[in-house]
Amino acid sequence: MKKGAPVALLSSFQIPYVADNIAGGLVIDHHEQTLKFPLTLSTPSERFADHVTAPNIETIVSLAKRRGFVFHSSEIYGGLGSAWDYGPLGVELCNNVKRAWWRWMVYERDDMEGLDSSIILNRLVWKYSGHEETFSDPLVDCRECQTRLRADKLDYKSETATVEEAIRARQVKCPNCGSTDLTEPRPFNLMFRTTLGAASADDDPVALAYLRPETAQGIFINYLNVQTTMRRKLPFGVAQIGKSFRNEVTPGNFIFRTREFEQMEMEYFVRPGEDEETHQYWIDNCLDWYLGLGLARDNLRLYEQPKEELAHYAKRTVDIHYRFFPEREEDERQWDELMGIANRTDFDLKAHSKKPEDTEGKRVNPDSTDDLSYFDEATKERFYPYVIEPAAGVNRSVLAFLMDAYTEKTTDKGETRVILKLHPELAPIKVAVLPLAKNKPEIVEMARGIKRQLQPSMRAVYDDTGGIGKLYARQDEIGTPFCVTVDHQSLEDEAVTVRDRNTWEQERVKVADLQEHLQRSLESKVVSQSA
Ligand code: GAP
């Protein structure tokens, strides 16, 4: 299909789309969104002229380390591959992303409950969810340099052959050494194994347990608990934020793919037949969430997973892709998954229920003690609800927010300054209070007092470790929306200077009005950025 060609209405919400079929998946664009958030230009130079983003992930790695967002884990022992620690600013940013998601997903809705389930679950959960059997990546070894590779990520140019056939025909090169001497792909289960109990041997199958590879299963096994205790009727959702673990074959690209990461997932339970419309609603809603928190529309796209990519439980999945690799020449290689929105049908609730039987009348799940079906009082029907699942990564979201906020500005003196134009709701620090003269005790005392006065209502810091120009530059680089400067005049007129991160404009505000002024300015920025 020609890029940009209009296609039929895809949902009953009557939203027109344009579609572009790329590499087997369907890339969908959303007309209404493009009107609200203009889909700007497609060549890199034009794109960045309008909205400056980080030129590559490396720029963010360097900023993150320099300014205390993210550090290499275990660095003093030589590090640990693809493990990262979140520093003072990183933990604030992560918490703000999670808080924004929870507020939007749980507090602002009438049909949502929250949950915090265990990381280690009964092994049977992973048997019946299908993860023991199917949660694997196809692993390939290079016989020449011993690099481990994911077969589905190998670059090979063949229109018809499968990757197995192409490897056999020696048409696929190892990206590390260029050899075509590769092993056949074999499944590698991504679940981390552990054993439970002090006396258990490492290979004791009775003690075997897994660290969860998704938070979702904790929701399915608690579905009935939540539904009955909260007296919920369909449709309703259960949201959860928490750590997940996958023994990834090829982790990398900073915090993009790691073995330990955090997910924000929600399972929305609906009547069968209402699933497709609800699925489309959540696709649109999730895209809006990222746009509302400041991601540029032209750095986001919707990607319809082709059938062969779908997980074993999914009827349809649409991913939200972010342009994580803008430096790559080929447009298609610039994108990767930020989150997925799947229609999981009734697969999971049925799989964990004691009732369903196979064609010979045998229970499909002889271990479950409960039936997770739903009785509809209105229609007097019993059925298994369908599930729509928006599943996002905290870490990938943080990376996207950092990349998109990254801006460089040249000063009148020709110096390049970094400004992190984070959405105010996400900014780790909301206001920095700075004394113009740190050797003047009255000014220092007043500045410290203002910081203490502000901190119960917003994250505020005090800094006197440099000249005012340097202090402003530091706050710009970490995304602080406002700086408050206390000067000699402040001692006389009980007023301070408030400087705006994005415009560098300054205004004089009475100390008595400061908290309200900042609160109002932060809120109006939130509104204007998401309008
Ligand atoms: N319950 C469905 C599920 O887990 P997924 O697409 O495998 O779906 C959802 O994961 C999101 O979790 C991804 O879109 C991504 O943001 C994040 N994620 C998955 N694996 C990750 C990894 N190894 N490192 C960082 N984030 C990851």
Shape: globular
Helix fraction by DSSP (H/I, runs of at least 4): 25-40%
Strand numbers in spatial order across the main sheet? 1-2-3-14-15-16-19-13-12-6
| Relative strand content | 25-35%
Low-confidence stretches: 1-23, 30-51
Radius of gyration: 26 Å
The bound ligands are: glycyl-adenosine-5'-phosphate
How is the main sheet built?
10 strands, mixed
Provide the residue-averaged pLDDT: 89
Structural class, please?
A: alpha+beta
Number of strands: 26
Number of helices: 16
N→C terminal distance:
33 Å
Describe the overall structure.
The protein has 531 residues and is of the alpha+beta class. The protein has 16 helices and 26 strands. The strands form 7 sheets. It has a 10-stranded mixed beta sheet. Strands 23-22-24-25-26 form a 5-stranded mixed beta sheet, sandwiched between helices. Strand 22, helix 13 and strand 23 form a beta-alpha-beta unit. Helix 4 packs across helix 12. The chain starts with a strand and ends with a helix. The N terminus is likely disordered. Bound molecules: glycyl-adenosine-5'-phosphate. The site of glycyl-adenosine-5'-phosphate has 19 residues, from strand 13, strand 16, strand 19 and helix 12.
